[in-house]
Amino acid sequence: MTDDQARPRSRRDFLTGAGLVGAGALLAGDLRPGFPLPPGLMPLGLVPLGLVPLGLVPLGLQDKPGLRTLSERPLNAETPVELLDPELTPNEHFFVRNNGIVPRRALARDLSGWALKIDGEVDRPTDLTVDALRRFPVVQRAVVIECGGNGRAGFHPPTPGNQWTLGAVGCAKFEGVRLADVLRSCGLRKSAVFVAFFGEDSHLSGNPDKSPISRGVPLAKALDEHTLLAFGMNGVPLPPQHGFPLRLVVPGWPGSCSGKWLRRLWVRDREHDGEKMTGSAYRLPKHPVAPGTKVAASDMAVIEQMPVKSVITGPATGGEHRAAQPLAVRGHAWSGAGDVAAVHLSIDFGQTWLPCSVKPAVNRYAWQRFTAEIRFPSGGYYEVWARATDHTGRQQPMVVPGWNPKGYCNNAMHRIAVRVV
Amino acid sequence: MDSPAQTIHRVLLAALAVLGGCAKSAAPGGQPAATSDPIREQLGLVAAPGREQVIAHCLVCHSSAIVVSNHLDRAGWEDIVDQMQHNGMRPIDAAIREAIVAYLERTQRPDESGAVDGPWAAPRYRPNPLWH
């Protein structure tokens, strides 16, 4: 394993040398305490940790080339669709969605003093090291993790938050243990209804009493055999940006349920009310609303299962293609409901549909490869639309569906443009 | 003696000049463009009243990218400032709050949303305008 965090930071060094220690520290993101303030800001007591010029590669992405940065602090970056083509998304191309600051422990890959605390509605509150966790049956599963806000940029009127387009999704092979096995070993009480997580990431404000995100899942989902406590990702320990040393992997639900940098699981007798569980965070209106409607908090419900979706990973949009040749189209399809039953393509704006070949999932909640060869009847401007149907019969809509105040769950069909010559 | 806003502006210009020079020097052969507004160039924040307050009070915690990629109406920006105060933003008085909200309302409007840029832009057909 390469320890990228140990490498000298040439930009930070440069900035430090130039006397802009504050600016250098804000690029580092994790160096809040103990650096000198830019003198002009001191009278105000303000440290602009977010003063990051656009276009610089933020720290945390040095070993993740090709991602599109949406926010440097907190770090958020999505994967261009072409890089989603492999069966498993490599760690270096897996999207990053952080709410706070990556813990030093993760950056240093330091396990000293770490244990997962499990408490609350259990007979035997327990602290488990990674070695202790490995004594449970270890499983490997390819699982899609998709941010609840993937596709937010498609909503109109626009909704607040990171403006994810298509790439806040990936499918990795996670190694870990079943959350159900671990929870049951602690003696779940009849009063247990919800499992909440707390991570070691720190709040952007620097307030140690605030948690950047503390969500969770109802007990039934926690006990689903596919829900994991994962310590490995694509054959290596979890990388720093993806939750070292331990994260939840909650298939089919918004990525925010799959908490990173875990330190504590609190089994509760009611729905958790931690950060980003309440208000409008990760919630949808209970009933459809007209775009732009203000929705009362009491009319919102927590998102559970994510909708069926697909992306065309090849060819890239905007290319040219010779009419005499068939065009090979490929991509992945997935659904929060589990398996995808079919994927269809249209080159005439949805008037006719061509079935694709769809590979079975390597396991439930992995994405599935679809392929097709298209022959174009003439030259000209074409769009290729992809529409997945899951095993419950639900399909992707043509328009951006279900406007909601925070812009979640946009599963509109992906389209590419092709100029046929 | 500078006002706090002038101080912030002066320090920012100095900081961004160095950061900008650093970014440019990283691009071999690149000609540094003549710049009239380094803050806009580096942070994406257009020049308008209230910009210094946004930098001083919002960029304390997060980067400007999340500001300039969002497009909301006044009520939307009011909600965001409320949310940020819940999130631990330093207390601000009514005048600073008004300066921040007014800046965001003016420069980050819904009709200037960047949603049509990027991967969405390549397919050129739009949903049927008769639906509206």
Helix content of chain A: under 10%
Unreliable residue stretches of chain B:
22-31
The CATH class of the largest domain in chain A is Alpha Beta
Number of strands of chain A: 24
Instruction: Give the count of helical stretches of chain B.
Output: 6
Net shape of chain A:
globular
CATH fold naming of the domain at 47-111 in chain B: Cytochrome Bc1 Complex, Chain D, domain 2
Q: What is the CATH fold-level name of the largest domain in chain A?
A: Sulfite Oxidase, Chain A, domain 2
- CATH architecture verdict of the domain at 47-111 in chain B: Orthogonal Bundle
The gist of it:
The complex is a heterodimer of chains A (about 425) and B (about 130). Chain A is mainly beta and about 425 residues long. Chain A contains six helices and 24 strands.
Protein described:
The complex is a heterodimer of chains A (421) and B (132). With 421 residues, chain A is mainly β. Chain A has 3 domains: 1-56, no CATH class; 104-302, Sulfite Oxidase, Chain A, domain 2 (Alpha-Beta Complex); 309-420, Immunoglobulin-like. Chain A is 9% helix and 29% strand. Chain A contains 6 helices and 24 strands. In chain A, the strands form 6 sheets. Chain A has a 5-stranded mixed beta sheet with strand order 5-4-13-8-9. The model of chain A is unreliable at 1-44 (pLDDT under 50). Chain B is mainly α and 132 residues long. Chain B has 6 helices and no strands. In chain B, α1 (4-25) crosses α3 and α5 packs across α6. Chain B has helices at 4-25, 38-43, 51-58, 65-68, 74-86, 94-107. Chain B is 51% helix and 0% strand. Chain B has a domain at 47-111: Cytochrome Bc1 Complex, Chain D, domain 2, CATH 1.10.760. Chain B starts with a helix and ends in a 25-residue tail after the last helix. Classes of the chains: A mainly beta (421), B mainly alpha (132). Chains A and B meet through α1, β1 and β24 of A and α1, α3, α4 and α5 of B.
